[in-house]
Amino acid sequence: MLLTQVPSYYQTRREKLMQSHPGAVFLIPSAPELIRNSDVHHPFRQDSHFYYLSGFDEPGSFLVLSTAQSSPSRISKMTLFVQPRDPEREMWEGERYGIDGALRVFGADEAFNESALETKLLEILKGAEKIFYRLGHSEAMDRRVLAILETSRRSQGRSGRGIMPLEDPQLPIGEMRLFKDNQELQLIRKACHITAIGHRTAMQEIRPGMNEGEAEALIDYQFRKNGCQRLGYGSIVAGGKNAACLHYRSNNETLRNGELLLIDAGGEYGFYTSDITRTFPIGKGFSEAQRKAYELVLSVQKAGIAMTRPGAKLPEIHKITCEQLTDGLLSLGLLKGNRQELLKGAAYRRFYPHNTSHWLGLDVHDAGLYTQAGEPRKLEPGMTFTIEPGFYVQPSDQDTPEAYRNIGIRIEDDILVTASGCEVLTQEAPKEVTEIEALRAKAF
Ligand code: GLY
Ligand code: MN
Ligand code: MN
Questions:
Q1: Is 327 tagged catalytic?
Q2: Does 264 contact ligand 1 (Cβ within 6 A)?
Q3: Which residues have their alpha-adjacent CB atom under 5 A from ion ligand 2?
């Protein structure tokens, strides 16, 4: 169903962006439509910057932000290029907002048919002092935009103005997106709530003998049923040794009693995604070795969460998780030797080869720099990110005792930095051994 009016916060974001970049022009194409084969497309998902600044989610569109000249109270001018109304096309593809909707519903200052980009953009670029456009997303769009910029340069005659350097919009928009506003937090909370329902349901319904794909469908069903439009990323549903493959995607093997199941899945709600991983026994309970390894990862994850507050840095959280994991692996006898030497040589990487955190928001690996002036940036209230340590025994690893083989464990929560510390947004997804085993009992 089409909207009648988008909320005013998109306008607030545009004003904020243009306030810090007066005279700039931001050129933001919609996500490209990707063809799967012949006339069948991959599902369309709007470009996150585009959506963040406009709320407009139709393909074949182009967002231009420039400096408003006419209104003293407004700095940002939004020009939306859209696919025009077309009853024949809309019969096949669904209703469009068209030019009228771009103006009325999305508050564009001006809106044109997308095919007018070449001519209208030349007018907008006349006063530009700086141009933001991200090269490399789509070759076809790059060619089109560069041709317009070249025409613009020529039209400046002998003014001496060359073709203007292009700046990457990822930096200023990514910086804004790093700090979630209240509307974004509402949507992230909802995505986390629904995703937790999915994981909880999986814990109480999955049984040995099911296929990983069926388990995937079960959790996906909960996401959709509870209001998610799609997933934030492809789910990883990995039984036993499959969990040691960090980007396992085939999700098509039978779940075996006695092994663990790792599910990394996140529902997207209102374009914001959650990112939760839970690991639980496919049978009723953990084996002793599985429980020891699980509790080690859980304690390491909690140590990372306990460190999270304004001023802390992600590499510090990663360092603590690596140190505590090393301590735990030493006491389980899975690593042997001198602690300092092991840490220096990053021996934990045999069992934990990935990083602990990433930003989270409109994208699962969200926009925003991890460093500032060459230094890891300090956490500040409003940032959201994951803490996701793990323990994986590779199938080729013959040195690890038998009881720890075929194991891959990750525990991943989504965290909001608050003024006084942090809030775990995904705490509704059970992760204590007793909670998990109680839920598993319900499956039998
Ligand atoms: N689900 C992707 C990740 O955890 O980074
Ligand atoms: Mn993650
Ligand atoms: Mn994940």
A1: no
A2: yes
A3: 275, 386
Q: What is the pLDDT of residues 203-234, one digit of tens each?
A: 999 999 999 999 999 999 999 999 999 999 99
- Helices 433-442 and 182-205 meet at what angle, rounded to 10? 60
Helical packing angle, 139-155 and 117-125, nearest 10°:
50
> What DSSP state is assigned to residue 59?
S
Q: Do the beta carbons of residue 237 and residue 251 sit within 8 Å? A: yes
219 C-alpha vs ligand 3 centroid, how far in Å? 14
The CB of 388 under 6 Å from ligand 1? The reply is yes
Instruction: For residues 215 and 192, give the distance between their C-alpha atoms in angstroms, rounded to a whole number.
Output: 19
What's the token pair of residue 159? 């003014």
Determine the topology of domain 9-176 in CATH: Creatine Amidinohydrolase; Chain A, domain 1 (3.40.350)
Ligand 1 pocket test, candidate residues 264, 352, 356, 414, most atoms within 8 A of CB? 264
Q: How do residues 69-124 score in pLDDT, each as one tens digit?
A: 766 677 899 999 999 999 999 999 999 999 999 999 999 999 999 999 999 999 99
Boundaries of every domain in the chain: 9-176, 179-442
Measured from the CB, is residue 78 less than 6 Å from ligand 1?
no
In the annotation, is 275 catalytic? yes
CA distance 46 to 31: 5
In whole angstroms, how far apart are CA 311 and each of 355, 369, 386?
20, 16, 17
Q: Of all helices (H) and strands (E), which one includes residue 185?
A: helix 182-205
Q: Looking at the domain 179-442, which fold is it?
A: Creatine Amidinohydrolase (3.90.230)
Check pocket membership of 275 for ligand 1, CB cut-off 6 A. Answer: yes
Q: What is the pTM of this model?
A: 0.96
